[in-house]
From TrEMBL, chain A:
GO terms for molecular function: RNA binding. This is LSM complex subunit LSM3. It comes from Brettanomyces naardenensis (Yeast). LSm subunits form a heteromer with a doughnut shape. Belongs to the snRNP Sm proteins family. It comes from the Eukaryota. PANTHER family: U6 SNRNA-ASSOCIATED SM-LIKE PROTEIN LSM3. Keywords: mRNA processing, mRNA splicing, Nucleus, Ribonucleoprotein, RNA-binding, Spliceosome.
UniProtKB/TrEMBL annotation, chain B:
SUPFAM superfamilies: Sm-like ribonucleoproteins. The keyword Nucleus applies. Pfam families: LSM. SMART domains: Sm. This is DEKNAAC102534. It is found in: Nucleus. GO terms for cellular component: catalytic step 2 spliceosome; Lsm1-7-Pat1 complex; P-body; precatalytic spliceosome; U4/U6 x U5 tri-snRNP complex; U6 snRNP. It comes from the Eukaryota. Belongs to the snRNP Sm proteins family. The keyword Transmembrane does not apply. Residues 1-71 form the Sm domain. GO terms for biological process: mRNA splicing, via spliceosome.
Amino acid sequence: MVDEKSVSASEPLDLIRLCLDEQIFVKLRGNREMTGKLHAYDSHCNIVLGDATETIYYLESGSEDVKSRKEKSELVFVRGDSVMSIADASNIGKTNA
Amino acid sequence: MLFFSFFKTLVDQELKNDVKITGTLRSIDQYLNIKLDNVQTDVAKYPHFVAVRSVFIRGSTIRYIHLNPNSVDTNLLQDASRREAMASSGDKIVGR
């Protein structure tokens, strides 16, 4: 029973629990994304990421092209209200075929 | 409550938020409102902060808090997360 509870994902937040100590990809408000190792989370989706890389997308005036810049942080707490989605980064960019 | 207790253990911590304020964490509450001392900001960008030495920041306005990795035990943090996840799913089963 206890084993089943710790391995299976019965509710949405369990998916995040299974990502602990793994590389994750987080989509954030304000055209931002972040990848890093998940060290902690809570029910508000507050998270702590290690060796995180943030990508910020922006438009420069007079240009149609979306540009991006990256910022790195060794350890960062991200407040849950800016988190839109969390995914296991090992699955990003892979197809099911 | 996890992050409340986590930050309570981090006295003397450098922090940054959207307007990039760096300082020493002096106190924190359940809403993750924070109080910083020894405040330093980019004076060229935010000249109105130049005289501010100590500041209260409402938790809801914070986007990120950058931490010093040397003062955080990430294994402890992961264990605490698992324990809190277990506790909250246990509550729901009991409450059913």
